[in-house]
Amino acid sequence: MARNVAETARKFLLLGQCVPTVKQNATKIRVKRLELDENLLMYFRKDEFYYCHDPVKKCKTGDIVLIQALPHKMTKLITHEIKEVVYPFGDITDPVTGKKVAKSQYREDMEKQAEIYGKLDSGFDYDKAPQRGWQDGKKDFTSKPTYTKFHVFDEEDPYAV
């Protein structure tokens, strides 16, 4: 019974986080699941990784995305497709209220406090901040191809994982 439910659940939508990968036209997604240990009667986290078809690279490393199983496997590894980017990395939204969050406070509460008590000179203005990706190639190297380094060489490659 439990196995059939788990197999059926894999065919529907899954929520996961994008992680670095070396595959071309594909994105690696980590889906967190809870697995019951029947001896201890406790749940433990188990990560499952799926390769998703993403030729236009609409998600970057760290994004929370919604994925769905393909009707037919594209390759041996690519079994899912990306439906949408739910939460882009770095722009945190509370899933219950839909409000933007900074650290442990809502952004609108921080703005109200700034109106009441005066704004600090060192405060960060979220409205004037540029979108993610403007430092692509300067300080943000998530779009560069990464690979696993198996050997140690004299020259250091910044894109090796």
Provide the gyration radius in Å. 20 Å
Structural class: mainly beta
* N→C terminal distance: 40 Å
Q: What is the N-to-C order of secondary-structure elements (H for helix, E for strand)?
A: HEEEEEEEH
Q: How helix-rich are the residues, as a percent range?
A: 10-25%
Main beta-sheet annotation:
5 strands, mixed, barrel
Strand order of the largest sheet: 1-2-3-5-4
In total, how many beta strands?
7
Portion in beta strands:
25-35%
Total helical elements: 2
Instruction: Estimate the mean pLDDT confidence.
Output: 82
Overall morphology: globular
Describe the structure.
- The protein is mostly beta strands and 161 residues long.
- It contains 2 helices and 7 strands; from the N terminus they run H-E-E-E-E-E-E-E-H.
- The protein has a 5-stranded mixed barrel with strand order 1-2-3-5-4. A two-stranded antiparallel ribbon has the order 6-7.
- Strand 6 (101-102) and strand 7 (105-106) form a beta hairpin.
- It starts with a helix and ends in a 44-residue tail after the last helix.
- The model has no long low-confidence stretch (mean pLDDT 82).
